[in-house]
Every structure is written in C-alpha cells, then in structure tokens.
C-alpha cells in the first residue's frame, strides 16, 4: 500500500471557479513538497493511456459477482426478456456519478468520507450527516455481503462434500483474512481479475452456444426487452437489480480510494493556479474516464450475458428455491448447454466470481471504515502505521460478521436482494454529493461540457426515480 501522504495532492478546494486554500501545518507542507516530487505527465493518447488504467478494473472484480450471478439471472428467470432494458440502463446510467467522484479525488486528493465531511456544513457530532448515512449503509451492507460469502461457501461444499456449510463459511473467511491481513492486495487482485475475464468469456460462449439448443432466442426476443415495460410484480426485483448491477453506490464510494492508490492525484500534483497543473489534471482525468468506460464495457457485457441466460435457460424451470442449494440450481446455466460434466467448471468459476466480490469488498469497506474512524479522531489517517492497523482490524472483523450473518439466515438470494435495495436508497446520498462536487467545487479550468452534465443529470434523475420506486415497493 502506498503512502497516502504522498498520494494526496493537497488540501485545497475550489468554490465557484475560485481556489480557496486551507490552512496547512508544517507536516502538511512537507507532504505537499513530497507530492510535487510525484508529479508525472499524463499520456497523450488512448493507447498509451491504457497502461495506466486499473481502479475501474478493480471495481469490475467486485461488480462481476453477486449481482450478475444471482440477482440478474433470477430477474431474467422471472421476467424473461421484458426487463433487459433495466439491466442495460442500470449498467450505463450510473457511470457519470462515478466520474464525478473520480474527478474530485484527482483534483483535491481527498477520499470519499473526508471529501463529504469537507464540503458539507450540517454536522451531527464530528462528521457531516452524509457520512452517517454512509455508516448506516456499511452496516446494512453486511447482510448483502453475507449472501455473497455464503454463495462462495456453497461452492466450497460442492468441492468438499464432506464438510458442512458452516465449515465452508469458516474456510472462506480465513482465506479472505489470510490474503489481506498484510495488505498484499495487488497480486491477488490481478489473479482475481484474470479469472473474472475467463468467467466473462465463458458466459459469452454460453450465450452463443444457447442458439444451438432448444433455448435459442430471436432478435424479436431481444427487442421485446427494450420496450421499457415495468410490470408491478417485477418492481422489487428490478429495483434490487438496478441497485446492485453495474457500478453500485458502494463501488462509487470506494472509487476515489482506488484512484488515489493508483496515483492519479499524486501524478497531478498540488492544486494551484498554474496552467501546468490544469493541463496535468485534465490529462489524468481523461485517463480516469478511460478507466471507468473500459470497466463499464466489461461489466455491461457480462451482466447482459447473465440476464439472457436467465431469460432463456432458467425461464422454463420452476422458481429457483432460495437456500443452500441455490448456486447448485444456477449451475444449470452450464450443464443444460454444455453437459453435466461442466458443472465442476461452473462451480470453479462461480467461486472465483463470488470470492473476488467479497474479497474486493472487504478491502473496500476496510478503507471506508478506517476513513470514518479517522474523521472521528480515533486515528491519524496520514500516519501509515495507524491506518494500516485499522485496515487490518476491519479486514478481520468484516468477513467474520458476514459469515455469522449468513449462518443465521442461509438464504443468499434474500440477502443479496436486500443489498440491492439498500444500494438503491444509498445512491440518493451518493448522487446528492455528486451534485455538490460538480456545482460547488469544480475548478473553472476543468469545467466539463454540456454532454457530461446531461449524462450526470440523467444518472441523478434515474437514481431518484428508482429510489422512489423502492420506497413504494417497501411501504405499499
């Protein structure tokens, strides 16, 4: 893990196009000097920019998981092709909010909760009210992440049939802690990303292979999925899918941390009035946008593939029963197309996808919680030793709590649908702060164009619409 004192470009903010410097102590002046030494010229074209992508691909390792494997296939099985538009829309529309968070992190060098606390005025205790909303989300997300962990544990019982579900949950928890305890996340994430690519490739192959079976679909089937229908009985699952597929509120919140760890802010340098800084900032923001768009293409392709398989192969089956056999039922996606002998391959891929999701989210939530603890004054975020210690503590506690929750509930679909609903509601807070970032703290030299603003508002309006639907479905 890099020194965050190096990665933070400076403690500056801009308001209505003007730059307002915050008071800095002597330690922060030293940090700023070190940050100047980290500056790097951005790549000049897309091809060279691909060498610096990464944060979005880390998110893809988390995104291509429970939402696609469980919620998306279940939605396809229940609704057929009718709600394909929800899947595509959910993957595409939220990226603009992600870009705004990445932009703020690069320009101001602040992770999410510190940024929220910095730009907000209405505090409850030591932190802004939106940070408390984030804490509630992190607590509620324990249930959804428990469902993901439980799904991975179900695969473990298939591979090792002699062990119980509880023992399999324990092994998954120990594996997560063992791989992350020392902070050596990079090499493991590379392996998880490669395996996710293999799994996405397998899904694409299955979509093509289904055309040679009795489950073949036609172009009219696909077009029917773009008719923008939303029957009342499908609203809860559609809202849950919208909240969890693509870049969800949790991933948007954690994206700035990955942008900072990649080095975008440090390479941009301290925020100042020079044209040199503005040119570097524009260049690294373009790289960040390339990173986000590339990851969006990957998870949209994967998500649409999962939905089509659910709408074809699983549509003709009885309703999927939630419980400890849920993943085994989903393996029909492979066995019906490629033969019974492929069930083992599916289970291996399913474990890779689900484990990478809970693994990446453990790393992400450990940073969010540590950021919150720093705002509460329990640690100095800039001191690497203190930050690492808290990250390790959360890394141990988080999967243990998720494992205990799953053992009490043992219904992965229910838990993951609950995660989708909380994601949809939390998106309101995330979207609100995106508006604050865009219209209160955008340097006039980096002001985006009209197309960007239209995309941002389309994202915000759709988030509000789905949140209202969530409220009606919960209380009607």
Short description, anyone?
The chain is mainly alpha-helical. Helices cover 72% and strands 3% of the residues.
Query: Which term fits the overall shape?
Result: globular
Question: What can be said about the biggest beta sheet?
Answer: 2 strands, antiparallel
Number of strands: 4
Runs in which pLDDT lies below 50 for 5 or more consecutive residues are 1-34
**What's the mean pLDDT score?**
80
- Helix content range: over 70%
Order of helices and strands: HEEHHHHHHHEEHHHHHHHHHHHHHH
How would you characterize this protein structure?
This protein is an all-alpha fold. 72% of the residues lie in helices and 3% in strands. The protein is built from 22 helices and 4 strands. The strands form 2 sheets. Strands 1-2 form a two-stranded antiparallel sheet. A hairpin with a 2-residue loop joins strand 1 and strand 2. The longest helix has 38 residues, at 275-312. It is globular and about 65 Å long. Residues 1-34 have low confidence and may be disordered.
